[in-house]
Amino acid sequence: MHEEQEYTDFAEHAKYEEYEEYEDEPARRSTARRVALVAVGGVFAALVGVGGYGAYNLMSAVSGGSSGDGGADTAAAATRSPQQPPDAAQAEAVAKDFLAAWGRGDFTVAAGLTDRPEAARMALSAFHDGVPAKSLALTGTGPASSGTPSEPAVGFKVRAEFDGATEAWEYDSVLGVMRAADGRTLVRWAPNVVHPKLGAGRTIAVRPLPNPVSKPTDRKGRPLDSFPSLRSVLPQIAPPDGATVVTGQAVVLSGGGAQDPEQLFVLTPPSAPQVKLTLDADLQQVAEEAVKQQSAGGKPASLVAVQPSTGQILAMAYAPQGGFNRAVGGGQAPGSTMKVITSAALLEAGVGPDTVVPCKETTHSPRTWHNDEPGDFPNYTLTDDFTRSCNTGFIDKGLEKLQPGMLATVAREQFGLGLQWRIGIPSRDATIPVPGNKDETAAEFIGQGQIQVNSLLMASVAATVQSGTFRQPVLREDVKRVTAPGKLPADVARGLRAMMAETAAQGTARAPMSGLSGQIGAKTGTVEAGSGQATNSWFIAYRNDLAVAAEVEGGGHGNSAAGVAAAQVLQAGGKG
User: Fold this and answer.
1) How far is CA 132 from CA 126, 328, 476, in A?
2) Which of 68, 103, 186, 92 is nearest to 144 (CA)?
3) pLDDT tens digits, residue range 286-341?
4) For residue 366, is the peptide bond before it cis, meaning its omega torsion is within 30 degrees of 0?
5) Cα–chain-centroid distance for residue 434?
6) Which of 36, 146, 333, 484 has its CA at a distance of 20 to 30 angstroms from the CA of residue 296?
7) Is 49 exposed, middle or buried (0-12, 13-18, 19+ CB in 10 A)?
8) Counting Cβ atoms within 10 Å, is residue 278 exposed (0-12), middle (13-18) or buried (19+)?
9) For 529, phi and psi rounded to 5 degrees?
10) How would DSSP label each residue in 294-324?
């Protein structure tokens, strides 16, 4: 009894871990027992710290069982070997504790419930740091079909909420459950426990999205991305002054070699202010097709349509498509379409539409000039010269009535050419230099020499004639326009409209303008590009509240290539 009482005392005070020396043998035996109890107690405490899984089995293994028949308990323990898979209840229990620890941010405890604690702890910590949710709810959904008899699986739902996000990120995942060699039920760790798409070498984190690119629409809010001529134009459209651009955020799966990053959830979508351009998608489609047809064989070409009453650009097309935007940035001599401005200057100088301006077969400045139409026509009026595009008549009367530089003055003050236009994207202004001699002066009267314009500028010329007022063309209404220093006199505007109407009805523009009704007017232009080279085709016209200019390099006469393209757009959009 004395020895038994000594054991009881030692067991009661084992937690103090008092190691005393005893001289007698019984005392030494009791001390050895006490140390064993302390060791068993230490193992038990550690198991409780990780949730208590397998505590009973491990305690029995260390203590030898609680019954007196140690051999029977040992045999039973052998029957419950690590090879016996977890049942459904055990799988759900360990999954529940794992998810609870993960959800409250106790990654050490959660990782201790897996077969790879360190890898699990690092992965859960990385997910927590990379995806800073204000709340994370993890809810078991029961047995998963991906499990096997030896390793059941448990499904669970993840719901993460973020500050500033209007919706929660939700997804389903699965974890496998296994029986460890020491008998514990553990979560089989793999990166895809965190998210089904997470694999080795990949990370999930909240990332800023690329800066949003404004995608302007047409005047009715329709997309413009599909038009080849606008692919280089749309990226040049800046947000309105003072507008806010929002850079969004998203949960992004990235890494893993050649795999592209994948957006898993958008917290805040990027946004850029919507910009409506003045373009009309229907008319843009017609312009694209018209230019494409006339540029077959690689001929550069362009076309611009403008609304005279507002100055709004309704269509803009050019070829080669996707290349340099020659419609607004190019610079070419306009040929006889410049005679509209020369006529305005002559009308202001006192020459009337019915004034006789002989059309000689040739004239000299001292350079020799000729016409497309052979022969002398001494009785032609200014209107006749305009309608039939007589070069010699304009050169002779221009040299007689106009001072050098007068053409540039009229172009600037009444048609707005040569001013710094701001249309919404970069564009080129007209170049109409003051001529240095009579040959240069004569060349400018018929649109040759050093004059450089483009389809945008000449569409504006046609629009100014139609409305009688220069309104600087714009691609967007919020840009600041320039105004011309002067105004086209009303009688001059009427005279120009009469001459352009006659050209469309009976003159060089008759063929392409045939069949068009309403208020119409046109002027052709044929530019000599050099000895032996094909001439460039120009055409400007209006129909009701639509003005168009087109040019085709190497297209021949103005009433052919450019005229056909312009007429197609007028037919589609100039019905009034």
Assistant:
1) 10, 49, 42
2) 92
3) 999 999 999 988 999 999 999 999 999 999 999 997 779 999 999 999 999 999 99
4) yes
5) 44
6) 333
7) exposed
8) buried
9) -85, -10
10) HTTTT--EEEEEE-TTT-BEEEEEEESTTS-
pLDDT tens for each residue of 527-576: 986 655 789 999 999 999 999 999 999 999 999 999 999 999 999 997 86
Residue 225 tokens, joined: 């991305």
Q: What is the pTM of this model?
A: 0.68
Q: Which helix (H) or strand (E) holds 186?
A: strand 185-188
Q: What is the 3-state secondary structure (H, E, C) of 519-574?
A: CEEEEEEEECCCCCCCCEEEEEEEECCCEEEEEECCCCCCCCHHHHHHHHHHHHHC
d(CA 169, CA 159): 6
Cβ(216)–Cβ(237) below 8 Å? yes
pLDDT, tens only, 105-143: 999 999 999 999 999 999 999 999 999 999 999 999 999
* Ordered strands of the 249-255 beta sheet: 202-208, 249-255, 262-268
Closest alpha carbon to 321 in 343, 290, 349: 290
CA 539 to chain centre: 35
Residue 3 in tokens? 């020895």
Identify which of 53, 3, 47 has the alpha carbon closest to the alpha carbon of residue 29. Answer: 3
Q: Which alpha helices (DSSP H) does 433-547 contain, by range? A: 438-445, 455-467, 490-506, 510-513
Neighbours of 242 (CB within 10 A): 6
- Interatomic CA distance for residues 477 and 463, integer angstroms: 17
Length of the chain: 576
Q: Which of 182 and 19 is assigned the larger pLDDT?
A: 182
Q: In 3D, which of 538, 101, 438, 399 has the Cα closest to residue 522?
A: 538
Give the residue among 182, 274, 289 at the shortest CA–CA distance from 219.
274
Chain position carrying tokens 């030692």: 10
Amino acid at 353: P
